[in-house]
Write a structure and sequence with these properties.
With 287 residues, this protein is mainly beta. It is built from four helices and nine strands, in the order αββββββαβααββ.
Length: 287
């Protein structure tokens, strides 16, 4: 397994807006993106919970709704609470740094664990469902952004990226595009990513106004990253295949990570479920 450092994966949050007040944060997210669940145990079959919020973001913990990804009222005032703009990193495969997987037939899919086209590889790891709800906050309200599209990609449990890392350069798994429904919601089935040297465990995503825009890599609305909570990471990294991830996790933190260190309250997913039964990572994405 090759060990690489994502040295170009810097936090370019030059457009980072002022975080919401406590009242507006609660009104917008309804607890879906900032919820904190209690960890049941640290065994392989234990349940996971969301991690802590940034110490200075002023967002209290809240119990998540019964339906992950449920959206708030469309008339809620949301102020400037947009998802922070972040770097794509060196491995986007969106045409900005080498290969463009977005224009390939097969990229629109919900199951990211398998490669498509002429590739046939399968990514091993703990199953996780990524449940995203995209909201339009440009007009000051949190309306569900139906008909939008999200391109999601992340590393393997070994910390490598398909299409770029030398031993999986011919694979294209752990990348895919989905359109949001009328409630602004979409889901991906994938594996829990590993932790590699220099970065906190994360997933990358780009938001586009439509499926056609995503598959032509045009008119992008936002580029950001999803952070995974520490307790969920520790549960997963205690399992076979994630040994290096557990060591790498000890080397950094959300507060020292070069992307999330300037604040991560809107980017920290809540994670529920278990290693044995599969996990769900839920995040609200205001753009």
């Amino acid at each position: 397994m090759s060990r690489h450092h994502d040295e170009h994966d810097r936090g370019l949050s030059h457009d980072l807006p002022t975080l919401l007040s406590r009242r507006r944060t609660l009104a917008l997210l309804g607890g879906a993106g900032l919820a904190v669940l209690s960890a049941a145990c640290a065994s392989d079959g234990g349940t996971a919970s969301s991690g802590r919020s940034s110490p200075d973001d002023g967002a209290p913990s809240a119990t998540p709704p019964d339906v992950p990804g449920s959206v708030p009222e469309s008339t809620v005032e949301v102020g400037d609470g947009e998802m922070p703009e972040e770097t794509t990193g060196p491995y986007p495969a969106d045409g900005s740094n080498g290969v463009n997987v977005l224009t390939e037939s097969g990229i629109v899919r919900s199951d990211l664990t398998r490669s498509f086209g002429t590739a046939s590889g399968v990514a091993d790891g703990v199953p996780v469902t990524v449940d995203l709800t995209v909201l339009d906050v440009s007009g000051g309200t949190g309306s569900p952004l139906g008909g939008a599209a999200v391109y999601l990609w992340h590393c393997t449990r070994d910390g490598e990226y398909s299409l770029y890392s030398s031993n999986i350069a011919d694979e294209n798994y752990l990348r895919g595009v989905q359109a949001t429904d009328a409630a602004g919601r979409l889901t991906f089935s994938t594996i829990f990513p590993g932790a590699y040297s220099g970065r906190w465990p994360h997933m990358h995503f780009e938001v586009y106004p439509s499926l056609s825009a995503a598959t032509t890599a045009s008119s992008k609305l936002r580029t950001s990253q999803l952070a995974l909570p520490e307790d969920a990471c520790r549960l997963v990294y205690a399992t076979e295949g994630y040994e290096r991830s557990l060591r790498n996790l000890e080397q950094t933190s959300l507060d020292s990570d070069n992307v999330f260190s300037d604040g991560y309250s809107l980017q920290l997913a809540s994670v529920s479920g278990s290693v044995d039964g599969g996990m769900t990572a839920t995040l609200t994405v205001p753009v």
